[in-house]
Amino acid sequence: MIWSLLSSRQKEDVPCTIEVENTFESLHAHVRLEGGVIIHPGDEVLVHGEQVEVPYGEKRVFNRMATINRAGWLERLWTRATGDIEFMELCEFSFSERPRL
Predict the structure, then answer these.
(1) pLDDT of 19-64, one tens digit each?
(2) 66 touches 48 (CB < 8 A)
(3) Helix (H, G, I), strand (E, B) or coil at 50
(4) Contact, 22 vs 30, CB < 8 A?
(5) Domain limits of the chain?
(6) pLDDT digits (tens, 9 = 90+) for 3-22
(7) Which of 22, 42, 64, 69 could cross-link with 79 by S-S, CB 3.0 to 4.6 Å?
(8) Please, are residues 54 and 21 in contact by the beta-carbon 8 Å criterion?
(9) Helices (H) and strands (E) in the chain, counts
(10) Cα-based distances in Å from 38 to 21, 43, 78
């Protein structure tokens, strides 16, 4: 009961634009939420609709709906506190003169 009060999530549905490019110059996918919506630490975004497939050499734009699950204040605080640690796990550091296999 206490956890549900501390981590209550609000849902918000917003339109979004998906831009996918699959060319020699670039391979990327960007999601832009419409209406000036801001995503905060701990928030989750789910884009609705069918799977996006773009053949090689093409760039396409899709319009979809997305649901934002807003993090509660406790989740937001936890995400800020642990975010740097989780990011550092993605980095690989080496102080040797040559890489080892």
Answers:
(1) 999 999 999 999 999 988 999 888 999 999 999 899 999 999 999 9
(2) yes
(3) coil
(4) no
(5) 11-90
(6) 555 556 789 999 999 999 99
(7) 42
(8) yes
(9) 2, 4
(10) 24, 10, 19
